[in-house]
Amino acid sequence: MQRQYGQSESQSLDFRRKKEMKKVITSTEQITPEWLTQRLHEKGGLSHGRVTKVEATSFPMRYASVISFLNVNYSDDAPESAPRRLFLKRSLHECFDDWAIKEVFFYNVIADMMIDPPVVGCYDAVYSQEIGHYHLLLEDVSETHHVLESEPLPPTRLQCEQIIDCVAKFHAEWWDDSRLGKEIVGHFYEEAYLTGLVDNTAKKFAEFADFLGDRLSSAIRKSYEKIFAAWPSPFVRRLSQRKHLTLIHRDSHVWNYLLPRTSIPGGVYMIDWADWEICAGARDLAYMIALYWYPQFRQTQEKHLLLRYHSALLAHGVDDYDINDLWYDYRLSVIQLFYLPVWRWANNQPSWWHDLQRFALAFEDLGCAELLES
Fold this sequence. Notes:
Layout: H1 9-19, H2 33-43, E1 51-61, E2 65-74, E3 85-91, H3 98-113, E4 122-128, E5 133-139, E6 145-147, H4 157-174, H5 191-212, H6 218-230, H7 233-240, E7 246-248, E8 257-260, E9 269-270, E10 277-279, H8 282-289, H9 295-315, H10 323-336, H11 339-346, H12 352-365, H13 369-372
Antiparallel strand pairs: 1-2, 2-3, 3-5, 4-5, 6-8, 7-10, 8-9
């Protein structure tokens, strides 16, 4: 019997009801020594003793979230191993959407299922459906790890390899796992959703094209016309095989990885788990490489990184997936990114023009159009 990868509404609601039993942090005043002591005791971060003082320094972020760095003091009988610095991420406004639910679900359920999850330690993750707020209480690893420099500077070869090794290990652990579609469900890649996405993007593209006028090249227009005419059939056929699928991050740009401050490979953490899904692993690679890198740099790294990713999959026990399968999935995943520049424009995200150029160039020089004709 084929596994079903559709969203289980009853399972999602059941999860939300369970997590609403805990208090959601909506302001720093609620981060009391008593509250933090209880959270750390429950998660093993504090075997004995108690928190005596918490100092919070907060910063608003994009997309209606707030982060707070917490400095923690303990009673004299607390162990030296107790975390002295913590990181709290919480919603600034009401957020009645899947993103908050999925990130909380990831830390409470998915990470706990893994042998060695590439994530920072989580001491609390709660979402309240009633008030539409969530919070994550995480280990602060800023002393040992760092985020890469901001755009437009790309990562170095070593940094790329560290990230690819981390992604491959994560994908390999979930590769064709029997829990996908059962304990872990998703909805993004259902055919009805994909067809709706194409139709809605086609309508939005008409506004997009009118806005750009002669600044939108005829080549890009033709590429989008080909996609709208054929998509999502090739993607649906690929996913309908229910083979060589895994859990993906889906927002896998290189700034969603924390790299060790030393030059020693390994120890990379993946952050921002609000958008995970079940798909071909190459979707994470296409998002990271094709959408964010211009051809001159991309072509110096792309083949090497895909080969390294494939070798790492094999080393972690994935079989019956050759390099040609990966290359096909990678090119197909590039096409699947067609909607992002249009919707980022519609949502006033400043990167949309560069996203459009990089997507169009990757679509052309990777020969993606021929996949729409098969």
